Amino acid sequence: MRKLPFLIVAGSVSAVVAAGAGAWHFLGPAEVTSTAKSDKGELTTGSIDTRWPKPASTSPAEPAPKVQAVAAAPSTAPIPAQPAVEKRPAYTKPACNNPNALGVARTVQIDTTGGPGLGMSQYRDYDFLQPGEVVLTFDDGPWPNTTPAVLNALAAQCVQAIFFPIGKHSTWHPAVLKQVIAAGHSVGTHTWSHQNLASKTPQEAKDEIERGISAITLMAGQPLSPFFRFPQLRQNAELKAYLAERNIAAFSIDIDSEDFRVHNAGKLVTSVMEKLKKKGKGIILMHDLHKWSAAAVPDLLAQLKAGGYKVVHIRAKDTLRTLPEYDAAIQAELQPVKTSNARPISSVIQTVD
């Protein structure tokens, strides 16, 4: 499998923040290698609250059905003006041919101005889900076989989800990424190569974010949703502020399936349903590159329906614009390598049998 060189920009070295035990948040395909150093176990929903300070806001949670526009967080420096973003075309809910399907109970539209944070494990300003409502999210794709299996399970129950693909994976499997988009799901980004951004210099972290955005957009062939999830959910104030400057919503979670650790479909479903019963609602995290996760989705959807839970689909008000310098860098890396001393093909390659 080819390796694409990173865009390396010199920057001051920031303090190294411990990464998860598996810096990729999974122990998946052999091609995927860990590059971040770690000295602590991978985060779980229950441990996140102890690792990040709570937002200072004491205003009451905003009720459903819609998340309202969010003003940019206070800052001593003004946020640079952003170019006009492309408006999404009118949304048409996909047709459902299964009268007994779980379906989508409601669709909410997010105004990502100022980079709001969603997911009560880290962000407490927008508690928009009603009791019994869930949002399904899938990280780390696209991946052959498993991502299509997840898509088939979702389609069978007429359910929409949010996918957070990795840039490098998208360049390997663009056709799978386009299947996700064609099925009507929301597609955000999850960096270029799934590294712990909190352990990087500010410039290195920015490169990871923007290379991921450019690569996924290029492979998708259309603009993405301005949704982002930090690898391993590791962030810092500077990185969150950068997303705010780019008007990108940061997605955390409420319920961690821990499918990077639990490699059994039945146990995964049981664990998710038990956590959901305790919390009553929330954003569920799974990974669409694990075969056991893909195998768990049909039963999970069936149990959600049997338990009376409702699926909420999240869409963005606007689309995300890429930065030209990163577009150019990704496009250059994806071009075939040209040699200056190439001989005629017939003198190099001949059919001998």
* Number of DSSP-assigned strands: 10
Rg to the nearest angstrom?
21 Å
**CATH level-3 fold name of the domain at 114-319:** TIM Barrel
* Largest pleated sheet: 7 strands, parallel
Stretches where pLDDT is under 50 for at least 5 consecutive residues are 1-85
Q: For the residues shown, what is the average pLDDT? A: 81
First-residue to last-residue Cα separation: 29 Å
Helix content: 25-40%
Tell me what the structure shows.
There is one protein chain. By secondary structure, this protein is of the alpha/beta class. The protein has a domain of 206 residues: Glycoside hydrolase/deacetylase (TIM Barrel). It is 29% helix and 11% strand. It is built from ten helices and ten strands. The strands form two sheets. Strands 1, 3, 4, 5, 8, 9 and 10 form a seven-stranded parallel sheet that branches. Helix 2 runs parallel beside helix 8, helix 5 crosses helix 9 and helix 7 packs across helix 8. The protein is globular and about 70 Å long. The two termini are 29 Å apart. The N terminus is likely disordered.
Short key terms for the protein model shown above:
29% helix, globular, seven-stranded parallel sheet, 10 helices
